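Tutorial handout. Part one gives the primary structure; part two gives the three-dimensional structure as tokens.
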Amino acid sequence: MPSTPGRDTTVAFPSGTYAAATWTIPTDFGGMTSALLRRSRTFVEEAGVPVKVLTFDPLLDLGRARADLEAVGALAPGVTLHNVWADLREWSDDDVRPAEGAPPTPRERGSDGEQVRVEPDAEGGPDRYLHFRPDGSLAAVDERTDDGRRITLYTRDGREGRSWSSVYSVYRAWIGRVLPDRPAYVVVDSKTMTKFFAVLQRPTVYTAQVVHGAHLAAKAKDAHGPLTLARTPLMENLDAFDAVVFLTEGQRRDVIERVGPRDNTAVVPNSTELPAAPATLGPRPPHGVMLAGLTGRKRVPQALRGFRLAAEATGLPLRLDVYGDGPERARLEGLASDVPGATLHGYVRGAAERFSEASFMLLTSRAEGLPLVFAEAMARGCVPIAYDIRYGPADIITDGVDGFLVPDGDVDALALAIEKFVRLDDEAVARMRAAAIATAQGYSATAVVGRWAEVFADMTRRRPVHVERPGRGQQVVRRLAGMLRRAPR
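Part two.
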């Protein structure tokens, strides 16, 4: 197993190649991409394994994406960025496999620096993607026709070479080249790539789909409610993955209740940077902090109302500092101006450091995946008070021990929880702060990478690399056979 030069690794992974798969790297990337890049870095640092980030977007400028990530320190040493179409443009003429004896043929050429040209059809939708090499020669054409789709490669002198009738066939060919050392372990982050990796079915490639968001629609009342459109393919292909990894036990439990027991599900949260524990657990001023995008999903007006009710009930000099920006900022500033002690600061870099001075933090979101803001606050001894929404808070907070959970949307209960906390004696507060700090350690890089090691080891144990995972057709046959065996005679 390769190791990171100059660093002692703390976690052992099974020998193999490691990769993360996503559709693209947005220029303004956020939660899911940040989690992917951080996890990849921690795999390098804690387990000593290089990680290849695989992307599939034909319009991704790979060079610019690499430069942008490196500029902000998001592409750590040992983590490399790859793109299927960029790699196709680099294939040698021998790899393109032109027909024997085919003469050179003039082809369209790219303009200076042009990598991809999109030619729309009569209705304005994309009809052809033309991929060009740095020298301007045509490398590949991806075209949609009445008969389906055709992807064709060309040599540098214009000879037609390999072609495929589906983009999944292109992806499969690329996976074989970009992950040559087997076994390979691919962590799939993007919903867009779920269907492809569900049907990849390579006996020496292990796949783990990470569920970053809710699988249930907002109107779902229980585990059997309607699914989100984006998560339906995953729910239809759970058994096609060696592992399906949830961020919270609550979500995994709901999926199991819906589909029945599965031995390929696991829970691994995202990790976060944790500061050193505070030097003292002594008293702090009764100040609260809230880190939230100023959108309807965060329900900041409810936090302001609950805070105001608590301040009025206690008569204490409570303060609430809200950090974040968003489309509702102007309206919320108007609301905050009527709440004594409440201030909206907008976006402030490094706002999580304010938790070191605050006594409590608030979360009133309508929905979350795994809100790592809890771990960031708790590691600094700041006690969380949160709505008990479907996933997230209850997986981190033990009510009354290291924080408080209140019924979802109950502003009066939120106010009572704030009031209860700020009225606690110093000894009780110190106990809660110590418990919060201990809870946060479960989200350290070492702890989370250790849980990933268990997932990879379990994959390998359940399906040794020489045993091919059954396809969906085989799965159906096996289930029907089992039903027939159990049927009364």
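Part three, for discussion. The radius of gyration is 26 Å. The chain has 16 helices and 18 strands.
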